[in-house]
Design a protein that fits this description.
single chain, about 350 residues, alpha+beta, Heat Shock Protein 90, 2 domains, 5-stranded mixed beta sheet, two-stranded antiparallel sheet, 7 strands, about 15% strand
């Protein structure tokens, strides 16, 4: 549910509450100013309770599964709020009467309990409303994730059938058959493994990092046939490869690095590093360009925009993504916190 609709819903609720609680029996007669002031304060006070739960207690405690803390704090708040509310009402009375003597006259357990139930009602409605809003938001996010998942699967399907990569790879393997049949056979198996991974494992929400690394390694090795310079590509992997990650997130960056890289400027022309420590998975890529226009294209491509959207949907608030385009160099740093996913998977 978008913010505009939520604001309209809040406005409707409070307008309804105002009209439902108007003292219709006294309309047409002269209402004392003290009574008007007391009515306005009581209404605003219940709004305060409502938003205390809606804005703070539910998001900070209940939504974070701190259920025991939520109910303990909620009980204390609901128990004490009537006292503070009546204290302000007594202050209004004292100001209108011009005296603060016997400030708390008339206050009793029965009066306190008469204020307890409106406060409890505001607290329950504030909590319930926030839970419902969170639920609708989660549904919308899931629907968007499903749409993105379908789009990702389509993109991966396209990559399987990408004639440029496929034909180049097959041509490179064909040239190896007469020179080194064993190596040609190994590269065909590598290509088959990539296709199998794209066909079956990318349908999962997450995969082990080791499987993603294996796919990336196969992609790099198939490109090495074309480049034929061992020191042109540097690929480093370290850390815990059992961590799980959404499949296919790294490939747009790696494909971009190969697409725009120049191996005439400096070795290695492409540097790729993957690290996994304590549930934080990081990818760093760097490549040299011999044309500043290529660097600008790599910086502003559709693939990067799509990747940013995917990261916001899958890892909201749990990732950092930085790109830096220089005259002859392009660097990317992506870091993803997968700890919440690891806890959920166990």
């Amino acid at each position: 549910m978008d913010q505009k609709k939520i604001k309209y819903l809040h406005l409707f609720i409070w307008l309804f509450a105002i009209f439902a609680n108007l003292p219709y029996s006294e309309i047409g007669s002269e209402i004392p100013p003290q009574q008007i002031a007391s009515y306005l304060f009581a209404f605003l006070y219940l709004m305060l309770v409502f938003y205390l739960f809606y804005i703070f207690l539910v998001p900070q405690l209940l939504s974070r599964n701190r259920i025991a803390e939520f109910f303990a704090v909620a009980f204390g708040v609901v128990l004490l709020m009537p006292f503070f509310g009546y204290s302000v009402l007594f202050l209004i009375r004292a100001l209108f009467e011009g005296t603060f003597q016997n400030f708390y006259r008339g206050y009793s357990i029965r009066m306190h309990m008469s204020g307890y139930y409106p406060v409890l009602t505001a607290a329950v409605f504030g909590s319930f409303f926030r839970v419902i809003i969170n639920w609708f938001t989660a549904l919308n996010q899931k629907a968007e994730l499903d749409r993105q998942k379908i789009a990702i699967e389509l993109e991966l399907l396209k990559s399987k059938l990408n004639p440029h990569f496929l034909f180049n790879t097959l041509n490179n393997i064909d040239s190896l058959i007469s020179q080194d049949p064993d190596k040609a056979s190994a590269e065909l198996i590598r290509l088959s493994d990539m296709m199998r991974y794209l066909t079956y494992e990318t349908n999962s929400e997450t995969v082990e990092l080791s499987r993603e690394i294996e796919y990336i390694g196969n992609f790099i090795e198939l490109n090495r046939i074309r480049i034929r310079e061992p020191d042109a590509i540097l690929f480093e992997v370290s850390g815990d490869l059992t961590a799980r990650i959404s499949p296919g997130l790294f490939m747009p960056l790696i494909e971009n690095a190969f697409k725009f890289a120049s191996f005439r400027i400096q070795k290695p022309g492409i540097r790729i590093s993957v690290k996994s420590e304590n549930g934080i998975i990081s990818l760093e890529t760097g490549n040299y360009n011999d044309n500043i226009l290529n660097s600008e294209k790599q910086f502003s491509g559709f693939g990067l925009s799509n990747l940013r959207k995917r990261l916001e949907l899958i890892y909201p608030g749990r990732h950092t993504f930085h790109t830096e385009a220089g005259e002859f160099r392009y660097d990317v740093k992506l870091s993803i916190d997968t700890n919440a996913d690891q806890m959920y998977s166990h």
